[in-house]
Amino acid sequence: xSPLLTVNNLRVSxxxxxxxxxxxxxxxxxxxxxxLGIVGESGSGKSQTGRAIMGLTPGHAKITADSLNFDxxxxxxxxxxxRRDLRGKRMAMILQDPKxxxxxxxxxxxxxxxxxxxxxxxxxxxSRQRALAMLEAVQIRDPERVFDLYPHEVSGGMxxxxxxxxxxxxxxxxxxxxxxxxALDVTVQLEVLGILDRLVAERGMGLIFVSHDLRLVSSFxxxxxxxxxxxxxEELPSANLAAAQHPxxxxxLNCLPTIGSHRHPLPVLERKVEWAx
Amino acid sequence: xxxxxxxxxxxxxxxxxxxxxxxVTMNVxxxxxFGIVGESGSGKSTLLRAVxxxxxxxxxxxxxxxxxxxxxxxDKEFYSTVQMVFQDPYGxxxxxxxxxxxxxxxxAIHGFTDVDARIARALDExxxxxxxxxxxxxxxSGGQRQRIAIARALxxxxxxxxxxxxxxALDASIQAEILNLLEQARKDRNLTFIMVSHDLxxxxxxxxxxxxxxxxxxxxxxxxxxxxxxxxxxxxTRQLLVASEGFRxxx
Lengths: 277, 251
What we know:
Radius of gyration of chain B: 18 Å
Structural class of chain A: alpha/beta
Largest sheet of chain A: 6 strands, mixed
CATH architecture of chain A: 3-Layer(aba) Sandwich
Order of helices and strands of chain B: EEEHEEHEHHHEHEHEEHH
Number of domains of chain B: 1
Radius of gyration of chain A: 19 Å
Mean pLDDT of chain B: 90
Distance between the termini of chain B: 52 Å
Low-confidence stretches of chain B: none
Number of helices of chain B: 9
Order of helices and strands of chain A: EEEHEEEHEHHHHHEHEHEEH
Largest sheet of chain B: 6 strands, mixed
Number of strands of chain B: 10
Strand order of the largest sheet of chain B: 6-7-8-3-9-10
Strand content of chain B: 25-35%
Number of helices of chain A: 10
Largest interface: A-B, 34 and 37 residues
CATH class of chain A: Alpha Beta
Number of domains of chain A: 1
Helix content of chain B: 25-40%
Mean pLDDT of chain A: 89
Strand order of the largest sheet of chain A: 7-8-9-3-10-11
Distance between the termini of chain A: 34 Å
CATH superfamily of chain B: P-loop containing nucleotide triphosphate hydrolases
CATH architecture of chain B: 3-Layer(aba) Sandwich
Strand content of chain A: 15-25%
CATH class of chain B: Alpha Beta
Shape of chain B: globular
Oligomer: heterodimer
């Protein structure tokens, strides 16, 4: 089986007044229908990697890659139109904060239908039914009521579930989740992750899960890429996290306070210039 | 020296019809680090804000260092004893003031004279050199901003620090640095902490006792040792504990 997504030597750079900023510097990986986690600190290039795959990098940025291939389609050479057809239909992205990523002046149901009707020719009635079914799939108790609400009328956890519903309504093959639960409470986090996990498994999607929380990612994904300063410093199967070789990965693992471990002060992450070479 | 630093008795806060705090009682001893956990909307931040005088409380009492306060009126003496650090380091620093001015303001209000030395020392203490003194907050990272917010709280040499989710807007790796900084400050100055967080891991690392809040009420107060030994009575506490252990795929 050929991989769903092939990324080879991806580079993203932003020209600024003080010279080029290289956000992503030579990232390579392949993704099948599996769950891949990308972990790193702020500024490590993990979100820009996801955005480059989606084609959401700002226009002035420069993207180069030896190959960026989605199911046989060369993403670097396709037209903007084809890219738009792909986005939302075959690949979708969940963003961090539902407060900012949902349209505040459009009812929730209408937003889901908008996604659906952009990509498929369906009747108004069928699209409404599919939107309601999708809201039900993300465990929203009263979909009929939520359908007519505006984003400010729902909680953060509900907003994120709506976001997931909207992204999955067209049945994408690749889902990129960029810190999908960082803006949520711990208790709600688990619920949302559980829903996401079930839907991804049921529908056999490829998932790229971007987060700064290594423990969370490793419990959720099959494989983890650890990024530092725009590069992948280590790739690990999640089950083997304890065997992490790179000091940066170990640092990310150790810096979290956990119940029952008394380490005062907490070990702090080291950052060395040579890791970025 | 185990006097009571701060005590809240039967505090009630309502916003119109909504009861945000429903007869909340808590006692914090001098030199203690006290945690408050709960989900969004449980009233944990409201409690802290009511103590700081940012919300009005309707009934109940608040006693700090032997003096009682009511409503939202707080005098200078209160603020030289109690200072607060907020959740969002992007929202809590004035965008058009330099770090120097931000730190000068509390000193000016409280009539300190040796401002220069104090600002330099405060920056030093939070691990930022004097090079940061004339920067604006947009020139700082999230972690650096939170350090400035802590410096601003510590510069008046308070006895009690109210911490409202001080690290939840930060990366896991930066969180460790800020928590270490807070612990060091507490050790050096013998401070009393009241720390709010939704992360039980952070609270159990930082605190000795904690209150679990739900829907505006304190459902349980336990020591961290009891928490670690799973000696608590509320189902809700167990849920929070499970949540803090991370995602598990149900079979």
